[in-house]
Each structure stands twice: as C-alpha cells, then as structure tokens.
Amino acid sequence: MGTPLKNPPVYLTLAQVRFNPILKLADFLPSIQESFRQAGYPDFDRQHLISIQLSVQDGQPSTPTPVQQERFQLGNVEKTHTFILDGQSLTLQSTNYGYFETFSACFLKGLDIVNHVVKLAFTERAGLRYLDRVMPQPGETIEQYLVEQVHGLTSRLEGDLSIPIQRR
C-alpha cells in the first residue's frame, strides 16, 4: 500500500453481491444483526420500500403492481461504512474508501457474516462502483473535467440562469 492521498478522488464506493433469494430473511435478522454489531457495525435501521412491478402479457401491459420490500442497514458509528441487506443482495457503501485491500476485506467480512447465518446456496453478479469527487482548482470550471454529454443545458444557454431565492 502506498501513501494516502491528501485529497482522495474517490467520494463514494459501492460493492454489491447478489445471491439466491432469502424469503424469510427477517427470521435470520437477530443473528445477522448481532454478528454485525460485534464486528463494529452497531447502527441498525429497518426500511420499507415500495417498488412498482410492470409486466406484459400477450403483448399487452398489465396494471402496475406495487411490491413492498424490506431492507436493513447496518453501519459503523462514524457512518462511513454501511451495509445494506435485502432478500437478494448485500451492498457495502463507503465514504471512507482508503485502499482496495481494506475495503474488499470489510465487504467480504460482511458477506461472510450473512453466509454463516443463512448458508447461501449461490452468489451471482458481484459489482464494484466508484463515485469520484471532482474539485476544480481556482480559475477552472467543472466542464473542463466532464465529457460534454453531462454538462447539461447551462453550457448551451445564454444569460443568467440563476433562480432568485425569495425569503418569506
């Protein structure tokens, strides 16, 4: 490992692995949460999400169906590392990436905790994403760092595009 950068470019890192569906994940939750707590992730939150499922039958779209899902967040006290667990995946999001070796060891520890409790049958689709911080230096613009397709309309329109804020 090298010397840490003074202004590291990585702002947010996500690692995710998808696995066989665990329909009764809530039954395993006390053991999973306790293991994460002992591993340094005592912060816990249960979230209820609603997504819309769209399907097509005989070439015709059916009525959208709301699907309720439950997911769990297990994080460290500093809130720099948060595991997100649902019935088909484990995700680690971090704002304190550091080094790949450290980050991947942390993620694998979380996956090991889940596997130890639920005995995963298989895993599929592992992914890693980095969100870089772009900080233009004095005299530079953000457009210098980004491809034209993400500049938005502000680079193509003339005049003052700011919206005045009215205070009550």
Structural class: alpha+beta
What's the CATH C level? Alpha Beta
CATH fold field value = S-adenosylmethionine decarboxylase
Main pleated-sheet profile: 6 strands, antiparallel
Order of helical and strand elements: EHEEEEEEHE
For the biggest β-sheet, the strand order reads 2-5-6-7-1-8
The number of helical elements comes to 2
**First CA to last CA: what distance?**
54 Å
Number of domains: 1
Molecular shape: extended
Q: Any low-confidence stretches, pLDDT <50, length ≥5?
A: none
User: What is the percent of helical residues?
Assistant: 10-25%
Q: Beta-strand level of the residues, as a percent range?
A: 25-35%
E-strand count? 8
Overall mean confidence score, pLDDT: 88
What CATH architecture do you see? Answer: 4-Layer Sandwich
Instruction: Supply Rg.
Output: 21 Å
Concise synopsis of the structure shown:
It is built from two helices and eight strands. It has 168 residues and is an alpha+beta fold. The chain has a single domain, classed as S-adenosylmethionine decarboxylase.
